[in-house]
Automatic annotation (TrEMBL):
SUPFAM superfamilies to which the protein is assigned, alphabetical: Amidase signature (AS) enzymes
Name of the molecule in the record: Amidase signature domain-containing protein
Organism, as annotated: Triangularia setosa
Highest taxon of source: Eukaryota
Transmembrane segment boundaries: none
InterPro entries named in the record: Amidase_dom, AS_sf
Positions of the Amidase domain: 226-407
Length: 760
């Protein structure tokens, strides 16, 4: 069989609908053994096939049953003759030579040992070693060669030119950087990408496939040592396919949208910020269409839904940031993912509620909760949205998910590390920064949380010891505000832990809720304060914000939330890049498509239903809905959470208490029940108020929750999570609290989550 029939490379389009059957790269085999490669004894076994991208190659084996192992890009400024005459050992073979660049600046044996901790590095790369030396190296080249020969080194060069350490390939006169190719066995990726070496915000799509799987190119971390300026250097990141990367298309998971518009001309500002700090974007991940509430089998029409790595392999991965969470939960070579966070349509909320008894919602928080990941919905801000396909502009925000509590906090610190003040103007939850005066009188548009923590840490700790009032259940909520420090004196730990009975009482007693209760008790012990049980519906009636005695359910009835969702999704698919034709409204998309192709674009049934409902709404109805939303949002932020500051924190349940499977068929959206009280969804509250919310996996290896599997007929261990919410600008406070609790010897949370079937 010719390689052209087995391998399709850059520039070729992959099949739209690949088979869901497991290939030789089965999910089970991926978990049992890492994908490796072997050069064998003869270099002729490896070949480099040039792609349609100049200077790029794919490394293959003559044995066609083996997958392509590496993607190569020539380092244009490095030519082997420039290595000079300092060479020991054999000449380079005419074929493909695996090589390693090493700085000769310390213990060589220790450095080679440290290299082996990198998941891309193998000892085969030591066959050719290029030493980067100073003019007077402290260790001789001959001595280095003697050390390296024991590791299989055949040729050694010495140069003064500074190039990144790590694995390479040498062929002829060229030296190539290498990306290890991993199979996307969980079908999480829409398009793997690599960035240009000299312009890291510009990208090329990589469409290599083998045995039906996309192959994802992943670079060695050795190329990207962490520095103070680049604290995220070498971290591999996925990006949801409603977020722009320059040079590749944003599809929104719509084939019509993909066909109509070309590659993006700019990378989303938020993503560019991550790249500035050293993050490596490895691809765009699948999501529900236009970040709606599609469920697998029932609604995923144009692309196949990714596979949830947890449990028996057939659980729903939820949405809308489906592929983002699947990649983080399934692949050790993916460090964190960027999705978005909004909410789900009311008819899908009710349908899933009927099927599972509960719903994991929130576009990043829902998938993370059922896969046992850390997740963050940050404080709402317009600054985060340029380059996003915004579905509901006054609710949408980027979202973060991660397996590691330390990295979770580090990313949050650099991506969302700023604090909201009362001097900022707020409209519909979207924060517009204005010039705010700090306590020292210096004016800033925004300011870093880390600096404030340094300035106020000592004062905060003093406040905790002196002014905290332990509130027993039943305490009048208004009393909390009397004793609450100002936002400038926010404590390192919250002084009040709210326990909303409205949400907790919805969950039936059982092993899932028992594990959640254990987690709440851990929080109480860590904060040294008992929970304050509250009932939001009763407090709303007592406060009577509208002055007409209406209940919270009446003010957030489903028709008004439908006004927000259907009107926005039906007419306002927007982006902050308004000058770019690709970032037009949904109306413009429909008009452009019909003008180009003579008919309306196809969209999934859920979107079609939203279009129909949105078109029937009047401006007055939409404004009425927005007014009710603003009233509730302001009440939740100010009356319940006390505005900005980390003084009050709410804990609530999240996830599914029974397994929800991907093979469930549902009625047509127009036939699905839509009478659903939006207030009953606990995860919607942070979306409405524009405040940060985090998801924490709380089970551990000893206390995992067993659930029945309808696939195997046996039990399966599934993750359990809780969620925390606090005031504006407390994003970093929340992730820091999680990190601190993972450091406890006893009574804390697990700091790391595994990939594969079980989270712990």
């Amino acid at each position: 069989m010719a390689w052209s029939n087995c391998l399709r490379v850059l520039g070729e389009r992959r099949e739209r609908h690949r088979s869901s059957a497991l290939t030789p790269f089965s999910r089970d085999s991926l978990e049992k053994s890492p994908l490796g490669f072997s050069f064998g004894t003869k270099m002729q076994r490896l070949r480099a096939i040039e792609t349609k991208q100049p200077g790029s190659f794919v490394v293959i084996d003559n044995d066609i049953s083996k997958p392509p192992s590496h993607y190569l890009v020539q380092s244009k400024d490095i030519i082997l003759p420039s290595l000079g005459s300092i060479r020991l050992g054999k000449k380079l073979s005419p074929g493909l030579n695996p090589a390693t660049v090493v700085y000769l600046d310390g213990d060589l044996r220790a450095k080679i040992g440290a290299f082996q901790d990198d998941d891309e590095f193998e000892l085969n790369f030591l066959q050719v070693v290029i030493l980067v030396v100073s003019k007077k190296p402290h260790i001789s080249i001959k001595r280095s060669y003697a050390i390296l020969k024991d590791q299989g080194c055949k040729s050694i060069f010495a140069i003064h030119q500074v190039i990144p350490e790590g694995p390479y390939f040498a062929q002829g006169e060229a030296l190539y950087r290498t990306w290890r190719l991993y199979p996307d066995v969980y079908d999480a990726f829409q398009l793997p990408t690599i960035s240009q070496l000299d312009e890291p915000t510009k990208f090329s799509g990589i469409t290599i496939t083998h045995e039906g799987n996309l192959m994802v190119p992943v670079p060695s971390r050795l190329y990207f040592p962490k520095t103070k300026q680049k604290p995220l250097n070498g971290m591999r990141v996925t990006i949801k396919d409603i977020i722009d990367l320059e040079g590749v298309k944003t599809t929104g998971q719509s084939r019509s949208y993909e066909k109509l518009y070309g590659p993006r001309s700019r990378t989303a500002a938020f993503v560019a910020k991550l790249i500035k700090y050293g993050a490596i974007i490895i691809g765009k991940t699948k999501c529900t269409q236009f970040a709606s509430s599609d469920q697998p089998t029932a609604d995923w029409v144009e692309y196949h839904c990714p596979w949830n790595p947890r449990g028996d392999g057939y659980l729903s991965p939820r949405g809308s940031s489906t592929g983002t969470c699947v990649a983080v939960a399934g692949y050790h070579w993916c460090d964190f993912g960027i999705g978005s966070d909004s909410r789900m349509t009311p008819q899908d909320q009710l349908e899933s509620l009927k099927l599972t008894g509960k719903l994991a919602g929130g576009s990043i928080r829902g998938p993370a909760s059922v896969m046992g990941l850390f997740a963050l919905r940050p404080t709402q801000s317009l600054e985060l949205l340029p380059g996003f396909l915004q579905i509901i502009p006054d609710i949408d925000t980027p979202g973060l998910t991660c397996r590691d509590a330390e990295l979770f906090h580090r990313v949050c610190l650099h991506a969302f590390g700023r604090r909201w003040s009362r001097d900022e103007e707020v409209y519909d939850n979207v924060t517009t920064p204005v010039r705010s005066a700090l306590p020292n009188g210096e004016a800033h548009r925004e300011y870093g949380l880390s600096k404030l923590l340094l300035d106020f840490q000592q004062a905060s700790r003093h406040l905790i010891k002196k002014d905290v009032h332990v509130l027993a259940p039943g305490t009048n909520l208004q009393d909390i505000a009397i004793h609450r420090p100002s936002p400038w004196q926010s404590p390192v730990r919250p002084t009040t832990l709210l326990y909303p009975e409205d949400y907790w009482d919805q969950w039936p007693e059982g092993p899932v809720k028992q594990q959640m209760e254990v987690a709440v008790k851990k929080l109480e012990a860590y904060l040294q304060t008992p929970r304050v049980a509250i009932n939001l519906a009763n407090i709303w009636l007592k406060d009577n914000p509208h002055g007409n005695g209406s209940s919270l359910a009446e003010d957030l009835e489903d028709v008004r939330t439908w006004h927000l969702y259907c009107k926005d999704l039906g007419t306002k698919l927007t982006s902050a890049y308004t000058s770019d034709i690709h970032d037009a409204s949904m109306e413009r998309f429909r008009r452009d498509f019909e003008q180009e192709y003579g008919h309306q674009p196809y969209v999934h049934p859920v979107i079609q239903d939203c279009w129909k409902r949105g078109e029937s709404l009047t401006s007055a109805e939409v404004e009425k809905a927005r007014h009710h939303k603003r009233m509730y949002s302001e009440w939740l932020r100010e009356k319940i959470l006390g505005g900005g500051g980390f003084n009050v924190m709410m804990v609530y349940p999240v996830g599914d208490f029974t397994p929800f499977y991907r093979d469930v068929y549902r009625p047509d959206p127009k036939d699905r029940a839509t009478t659903y009280n939006w207030f009953e969804r606990e995860d919607h509250q942070s979306s409405l108020a524009g405040v940060p919310s985090v998801v924490i996996p709380v089970a551990n290896k000893v206390a995992q929750v067993e659930q029945p599997s309808k696939i195997t007929g046996k039990s399966q261990n599934l993750p359990v999570a809780i969620s925390l919410m606090s005031g504006r600008g407390t994003d970093v406070d929340l992730t820091n609290l999680i990190l601190e609790m993972t450091k406890l010897d006893k009574g804390g949370f697990a700091g790391k989550v595994k990939v594969g079937k079980e989270a712990f």
